[in-house]
């Protein structure tokens, strides 16, 4: 039996404010089944300041290979002084490593979002409703409106896997997302004419 190409979902809960409800939903069977359905092989979780107990409880209760892991290699860590760029890059496709493009699921912290957007893979942003003076909902709505990411809902996190796949398809479509109503109306020929300076 041939080995499936690696496809990574990287989840960041954040390093400062606890977001255990997101972590619990990421480890929920419905979310893991959604990843399996879309051919993910690996789930890497940055579980944050206080999430280790939740992560350890799941991994001790459900050993590698158990049905509750839905065929996924599940890994986790708390905090890295040098940032999350290395883990985020695991989600990029790489022919040499036999890996397909995956996705990043992030809490709605602006630093994590900016770093994830630079990677260029589908991004799901999940606001933390427990934060006071919460600007995260507004930030998540704005980046979704612009087609840069999709907003995930805690009560239906599995759906965000499908939304990430839709975002991937939209990013590969023509005309490009955010191209404006008429900018690419004439297709590739129009773009070439504009770039080369041709006029009608």
Provide keyphrases for this structure.
Rossmann fold, six-stranded parallel β-sheet, 200 residues, glycosyltransferase, N-acetylglucosaminyldiphosphodolichol N-acetylglucosaminyltransferase activity, 38% helix, 8 helices, EC 2.4.1.141, alpha/beta, single chain
Architecture blueprint of SSEs:
Elements: E1 6-12, H1 20-26, H2 29-37, E2 42-46, H3 52-61, E3 73-77, H4 85-89, E4 99-107, H5 110-119, E5 123-126, H6 136-145, E6 150-151, H7 158-171, H8 187-196
Parallel strand pairs: 1-2, 1-4, 2-3, 4-5, 5-6
Helix pairs in contact: 2-7
Can you characterise this structure?
Helices cover 38% and strands 16% of the residues. It has 200 residues and is of the alpha/beta class. The protein has a single domain (6-174), classed as 3-Layer(aba) Sandwich (Rossmann fold), CATH 3.40.50.2000. It has a 6-stranded parallel beta sheet, with helices on both faces. Helix 2 runs parallel beside helix 7 (158-171). It is globular, with a radius of gyration of 19 Å.
């Amino acid at each position: 039996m041939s080995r499936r190409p690696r496809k990574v979902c990287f989840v960041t809960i954040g390093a400062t404010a606890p977001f255990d409800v997101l972590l619990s939903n990421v480890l929920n069977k419905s979310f893991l089944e959604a990843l399996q359905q879309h051919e993910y092989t690996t789930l890497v979780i940055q579980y944050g300041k206080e999430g280790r107990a939740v992560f350890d409880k799941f991994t001790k209760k459900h050993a590698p290979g158990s049905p509750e892991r839905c065929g996924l290699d599940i890994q986790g860590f708390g905090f890295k002084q040098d940032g999350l760029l290395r883990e985020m890059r695991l989600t990029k496709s790489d022919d040499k490593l036999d890996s397909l493009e995956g996705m990043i699921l992030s809490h709605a912290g602006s630093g994590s979002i900016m770093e994830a957007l630079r990677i260029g893979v589908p991004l799901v942003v999940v606001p933390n409703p427990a934060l006071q003076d919460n600007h995260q909902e507004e930030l998540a709505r704005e980046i979704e409106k612009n087609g840069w990411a999709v907003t995930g809902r805690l009560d239906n996190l599995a759906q965000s896997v499908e939304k990430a796949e839709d975002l991937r398809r939209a990013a590969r479509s023509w005309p490009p997302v955010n191209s404006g109503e008429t900018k690419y109306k004439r297709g590739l020929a129009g773009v070439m004419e504009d770039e080369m300076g041709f006029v009608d």
